């Protein structure tokens, strides 16, 4: 994934490390919020269907 604010590319494992202390992690198991490990910006993870459609359009 790529941070829309700073452009830093990171993988899901790096994002999960940042979220370990988040109180929302315990409130919901399907949290879609991702926090950039570089700048701390929080954004909503796009669904797989949106990513699939974008890959077709930009192919």
Polypeptide structure, described:
The protein is an alpha+beta fold and 59 residues long. The chain has one domain. Helices cover 37% and strands 10% of the residues. The chain has helices at 12-18, 23-27, 48-57, and strands spanning 33-35, 42-44. A two-stranded antiparallel sheet has the order 1-2. β1 (33-35) and β2 (42-44) form a beta hairpin. It is globular, with a radius of gyration of 13 Å.
DSSP helical segment count: 3
Class from helix and strand fractions: alpha+beta
- How many domains? The number is 1
Fraction of residues in H or I helices = 25-40%
Cα shape: globular
Beta content comes to 5-15%
Mean pLDDT figure: 82
Low-confidence stretches: none
Identify the strand order in the major beta sheet: 1-2
Assembly type of the chains comes to single chain
- Main sheet: strands, sense, barrel: 2 strands, antiparallel
Q: Tell me the span between the first and last alpha carbons.
A: 18 Å
Give the ordered list of helices and strands. HHEEH
Number of strands: 2
Rounded Rg: 13 Å
In short:
Helices cover 37% and strands 10% of the residues.
Key descriptive features of the protein:
59 residues, alpha+beta, two-stranded antiparallel sheet, 3 helices, 2 strands
Helices and strands, with pairings:
Blueprint lengths: L11 H7 L4 H5 L5 E3 L6 E3 L3 H10 L2
Antiparallel strand pairs: 1-2
């Amino acid at each position: 994934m790529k941070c829309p604010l700073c452009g830093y590319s990171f993988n899901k494992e790096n994002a999960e490390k940042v979220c370990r202390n988040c109180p929302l992690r315990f409130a919901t198991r399907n949290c879609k919020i991702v926090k950039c490990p570089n700048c701390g910006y929080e954004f909503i993870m796009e669904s797989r269907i949106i990513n699939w459609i974008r890959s077709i359009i930009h192919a």
